[in-house]
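Practice problem 4.
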């Protein structure tokens, strides 16, 4: 069976159209793959942040709360002493402000990805819960920030971080 000139032109035209659309299709598929990877990494990072917030919420409000019920804010941990006590390290924390300054590395949630989890604790004005204060109160805020190599905005190719915060109070 022989191909005539008209059929040959149709085949060449189809190949030309196919070769022009193939790079666009490949780019679209690659963008979708990057978006899927970034979305999975974001979900894992949010899960890690929520895990740290939940762990802190299950602990004592302050070191002094382990042995007594404080009546005055002066009994609470000093601002410059927030963080783990001597000999404590994650995951053996016993009160929520031990997370202050903690850096946790996680490669279990996504085995091929190393997430860095940083946290900080501060005292909060009970009358204005959005304001950090430089004195002791019965309200603390834990901020958890998760970073990782695949936490990327696919559209801009810029790194992103997952940041969550939670208020804890003692009354």
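Answer key:
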């Amino acid at each position: 069976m022989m191909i005539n000139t008209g059929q040959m032109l149709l085949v060449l035209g189809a190949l030309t159209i196919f070769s022009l659309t193939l790079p666009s299709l490949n780019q679209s598929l690659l963008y979708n793959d990057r978006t899927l990877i970034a979305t999975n990494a974001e979900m894992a990072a949010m899960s890690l942040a929520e895990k740290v917030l939940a762990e802190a919420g299950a602990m004592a409000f302050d070191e002094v709360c382990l042995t007594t019920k404080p009546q005055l804010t002066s009994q609470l941990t000093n601002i410059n002493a927030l963080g783990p006590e001597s000999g404590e390290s994650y995951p053996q924390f016993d009160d929520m402000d031990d997370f202050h300054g903690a850096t946790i590395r996680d490669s279990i949630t996504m085995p091929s990805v190393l997430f860095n989890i940083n946290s900080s604790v501060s005292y909060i004005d009970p009358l204005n819960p959005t304001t950090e204060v430089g004195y002791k109160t019965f309200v603390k805020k834990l901020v958890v920030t998760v970073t990782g190599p695949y936490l990327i905005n696919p559209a801009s190719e810029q790194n992103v971080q997952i940041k969550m915060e939670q208020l804890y109070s003692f009354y």
